[in-house]
């Protein structure tokens, strides 16, 4: 079993760049990703912990759990830790080969009866199998907007009755004043966590073309259009939110 290397401190955007390239989940990001996401996303640790607790409640015996856009497997491992139903298989999927390679090392280092399989694939193209829980933890915002409804509808179709989708996303607001305020509060959060003005500015520029975010209303309507009748926003901090969408018996 390979030892897990400690996460490096995120300094990807700490030096002035002549040209800020589009953000990519490459080896440079993989090396610092745990530090990056915890210093950039308010409440991230709480979201991961709650995903594990939701798995305790909703994962059904002899079913699959999908972690779509699994990055380094934090959500997959939270499910593994808290799910004690027999015959469960966790499948983490990411389209970054650098992420997948490191993620496999991480999940192999954790003991437990629930197997975790990590795959390198495009989540908009894979064939999902019947499952009782699906996780999209800050993933949908990187999917082409025209493909988002189709993906959510495919997830709904494969979920078991009483199955659960967890959707976490950065969101925008129709009210420009409110949007500006929450963006400013988020940037202050990053400064408070040690990021410089240069880092905040360059990271924002890098994400501009690759992370296209929706409003809360659009997210919730998309879930309802897919067929979910129970949609609940359970977490909110600044412009970050997480929902649970439950497929009830009547949603078949």
From TrEMBL:
<dbReference type="InterPro" id="IPR041698">
    <property type="entry name" value="Methyltransf_25"/>
</dbReference>
<keyword id="KW-0949">S-adenosyl-L-methionine</keyword>
<comment type="subunit">
    <text>Homodimer.</text>
</comment>
<dbReference type="GO" id="GO:0016743">
    <property type="term" value="F:carboxyl- or carbamoyltransferase activity"/>
</dbReference>
<dbReference type="Pfam" id="PF13649">
    <property type="entry name" value="Methyltransf_25"/>
</dbReference>
<comment type="similarity">
    <text>Belongs to the class I-like SAM-binding methyltransferase superfamily. Cx-SAM synthase family.</text>
</comment>
<feature type="binding site">
    <location>
        <begin position="69"/>
        <end position="71"/>
    </location>
    <ligand>
        <name>S-adenosyl-L-methionine</name>
    </ligand>
</feature>
<dbReference type="GO" id="GO:0002098">
    <property type="term" value="P:tRNA wobble uridine modification"/>
</dbReference>
<feature type="binding site">
    <location>
        <position position="44"/>
    </location>
    <ligand>
        <name>S-adenosyl-L-methionine</name>
    </ligand>
</feature>
<feature type="domain" description="Methyltransferase">
    <location>
        <begin position="65"/>
        <end position="163"/>
    </location>
</feature>
<protein>
    <recommendedName>
        <fullName>Carboxy-S-adenosyl-L-methionine synthase</fullName>
        <ecNumber>2.1.3.-</ecNumber>
    </recommendedName>
</protein>
<feature type="binding site">
    <location>
        <begin position="94"/>
        <end position="95"/>
    </location>
    <ligand>
        <name>S-adenosyl-L-methionine</name>
    </ligand>
</feature>
<dbReference type="GO" id="GO:1904047">
    <property type="term" value="F:S-adenosyl-L-methionine binding"/>
</dbReference>
<feature type="binding site">
    <location>
        <position position="204"/>
    </location>
    <ligand>
        <name>S-adenosyl-L-methionine</name>
    </ligand>
</feature>
<feature type="binding site">
    <location>
        <position position="137"/>
    </location>
    <ligand>
        <name>S-adenosyl-L-methionine</name>
    </ligand>
</feature>
<dbReference type="InterPro" id="IPR005271">
    <property type="entry name" value="CmoA"/>
</dbReference>
<dbReference type="InterPro" id="IPR029063">
    <property type="entry name" value="SAM-dependent_MTases_sf"/>
</dbReference>
<comment type="function">
    <text>Catalyzes the conversion of S-adenosyl-L-methionine (SAM) to carboxy-S-adenosyl-L-methionine (Cx-SAM).</text>
</comment>
<keyword id="KW-0808">Transferase</keyword>
<feature type="binding site">
    <location>
        <begin position="122"/>
        <end position="123"/>
    </location>
    <ligand>
        <name>S-adenosyl-L-methionine</name>
    </ligand>
</feature>
């Amino acid at each position: 079993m390979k030892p897990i290397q400690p996460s490096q401190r995120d300094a990807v955007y700490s030096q002035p760049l002549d040209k800020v390239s589009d953000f990519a989940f490459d080896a440079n990001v993989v090396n610092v990703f745990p530090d990056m996401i915890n210093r950039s996303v308010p409440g991230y640790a709480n979201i991961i912990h709650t995903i594990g607790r939701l798995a305790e409640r909703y994962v059904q015996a002899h079913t699959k759990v999908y972690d779509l856009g699994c990055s380094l497997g934090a959500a997959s491992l939270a499910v593994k830790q808290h799910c004690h139903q027999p015959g469960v298989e966790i499948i983490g999927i990411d389209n970054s080969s650098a992420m997948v390679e490191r993620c496999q090392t991480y999940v192999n280092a954790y003991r437990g009866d629930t197997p975790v399989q990590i795959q390198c694939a495009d989540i908009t193209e894979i064939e999902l199998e019947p499952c009782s829980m699906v996780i999209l933890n800050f993933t949908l915002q990187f999917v082409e907007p025209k493909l988002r409804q189709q993906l959510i509808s495919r997830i709904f179709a494969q979920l078991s009755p009483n199955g659960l989708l967890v959707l976490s996303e950065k969101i925008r607001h129709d009210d420009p004043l409110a949007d500006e305020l929450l963006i400013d509060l988020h940037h202050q959060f990053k400064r408070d966590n040690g990021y410089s003005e240069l880092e905040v500015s360059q990271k924002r520029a890098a994400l501009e073309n690759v992370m296209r975010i929706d409003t809360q209303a659009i997210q919730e309507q998309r879930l309802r259009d897919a067929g979910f009748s129970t949609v609940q926003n359970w977490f909110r901090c600044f412009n970050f939110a997480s929902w649970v969408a439950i497929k009830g018996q009547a949603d078949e």
